[in-house]
Prior knowledge:
Elements (H helix, E strand, L loop, with lengths): L10 H6 L8 E6 L19 E2 L19 H10 L16 E6 L7 H8 L8 E4 L15 H13 L7 E4 L9
Parallel strand pairs: 1-3, 1-4, 2-3, 4-5
Helix pairs in contact: 3-4
Amino acid sequence: xxxxxxxxxxxxxxxxxxxxxxxxxxSVLDDGLERDHPDLSANYDPLASYDFNSNxxxxxxRYNVWDENRHGTRCAGEVAAAANNRLCGVGVAYNAxxxxxxxxxxxxxxxxxxxxxxxHPQHIHIYSASxxxxxxxxxVDGPGILALEAFYKGIANGRGGLGSxxxxxxxxxxxxx
Length: 177
């Protein structure tokens, strides 16, 4: 964020122009979200959150001895960790509202992906996913028929017809290339 890393994300420039995420709602589709995390609680949006693994409105991760369900919270912090709270860092869109959809802590089926990708499309502006199918760095599996339909509906009808935005990390298969 201090313009000393290449490629520069120009975060400080964006902030100086007033782009802080204000008015934006983003939901992280992952293994859950610690809604009461001190970096996230001020920006937490329950309307952008759901648990499709347990079918309830609480996206809290399921904790275990390996602490494997922390990825969603970490991703959310990169985006919307509150500014000036005297804790860790700050999110790139520190004024955005953040939600979490817990959907990776159980069977990952086409229906679970579709439900997650189409959750509250008139409220959520951006769906962020930092996961994908196993890949070898050269080939990647595509979405199932229901998830594909969720993408189409989101793009055509989300955000009052402006279209939902879907942000995806590149695959983990690069380690095999």
